[in-house]
Write a structure and sequence with these properties.
52% of the residues lie in helices and 11% in strands. It has 16 helices and 9 strands.
Length: 347
């Protein structure tokens, strides 16, 4: 299913398969593929061929209905020159948060992140994906609030949002500009979908979200006019759902602590992705994963715009048997629904 622009549409895919009695199955996975290529996290984050091979092996093993590249919340921060620690077999972490005043942002304003080597890794990985995979391909960008938190420190940023609104708004606008620059490059590289990763937003009130974040997301959607923008916020976001619905994005990716059928009952036709627990995927038996996945599908059976996914990115050590169980539940549910509808029609 493609848009008229030539882009794949996850929303159209979800509706088409729902009308056929099926669901798109798209776990947020990337790092478990390292088990298939015997490579390290660092190798995948610094080499586009290694990362693409990891994703290609995952695709051939599971045949998901869409593919995202590796989730990495440090890409934009490291491109700006923030000190980032890169363990061989763990995710990167930003080690310092140097911005305390708006003047501290001046050196960063001179940096074009598209000249950074790791940014190029992800752009090249996406080009490989676009050429190889016969399905929607997706990318991630950090959210402007979360990037601002990496620049200033999340706790400091939260305090300044109350004590010094001019500083808070200034660093947020700067971060938004960085995210927009990267997102436009991802659009040009062939992304069908861009997921904005905004974990820091969970601490906001609905009023703060509406005032500070919603206008930025809405503008991002307008500029990326032929790419579907999905918003992902970790944690319990029930207090933000109404505002997230209204900020212009095509869909929401919601964490496992969110009651997804409850969100779906509120309707409004927004694309919903989720939300099997990555922790369960890591620690439970395949039989448990199959059962909870099937139960989620049953709970969402009357909502057309749903994509079966995970509540967040899957860790590297998730047993591949659990991913198999996740996909098997999705496929079995499709078959069972079709069987029931065929019997009902025959009567």
């Amino acid at each position: 299913m493609r848009r008229t622009s030539g882009k794949f549409s996850l929303r159209e895919l979800a509706l088409t398969l729902w009308n056929e009695g099926r669901r798109p199955v798209v776990p947020l996975m990337g790092y478990p593929g390292l088990q298939l290529t015997k490579t390290s996290i660092k190798q995948n984050q610094f080499n586009h061929l290694v990362q693409f091979q990891t994703l290609s092996r995952l695709y051939d093993r599971f045949h998901p209905d869409a593919m995202f590249f590796l989730m990495d919340l440090s890409v934009e921060a490291s491109a700006l020159g923030l000190p980032v620690r890169f363990p061989l077999d763990d995710t990167p972490s930003v080690e310092a948060h140097p911005v305390r005043t708006l003047e501290d942002l001046e050196p960063f304003r001179k940096i074009d992140i598209l000249g950074d080597g790791r940014v190029m890794v992800y752009l090249e990985t996406l080009r490989h994906m676009r050429a190889a995979f016969p399905c929607p391909v997706g990318a991630y960008v950090i959210g402007p609030l979360t990037l601002a938190g990496l620049l200033a420190g999340a706790n400091e940023l939260a305090m300044q949002s109350i004590l010094d609104e001019s500083f808070f708004q200034g660093i947020l606008e700067f971060s938004y500009g960085v995210v927009l620059r990267y997102a436009q490059a991802l659009q040009e590289a062939g992304a069908d979908t861009i997921m904005v990763l905004e974990p820091t937003a969970v601490i906001f009130s609905p009023e703060a979200f509406r005032k500070h974040l919603a206008p930025l997301y809405r503008e991002l959607v307008g500029i990326l006019d032929d790419v579907e923008v999905i918003l992902h916020v970790c944690g319990n976001t029930h207090h933000l759902i109404s505002e997230m619905r209204r900020c212009g994005v095509a869909g929401l990716s919601l964490d496992s602590v969110v009651d997804l059928p409850r969100v779906a009952r509120d309707g409004e036709g927004l694309l919903l992705l989720g939300n099997v627990s990555p922790v369960a995927m890591l620690s439970e038996a395949p039989e448990h994963i199959y059962r909870v996945t099937y139960e989620l599908l049953e709970g969402m059976k009357d909502y057309p715009y749903f994509i079966l996914s995970t509540g967040c990115d899957l860790p590297q050590d998730v047993p591949l048997e659990n991913i198999e169980a996740f996909f098997q539940a999705g496929r079995d549910w499709r078959v069972e629904r079709q069987r029931k509808e065929t019997k009902a029609f025959a009567k």
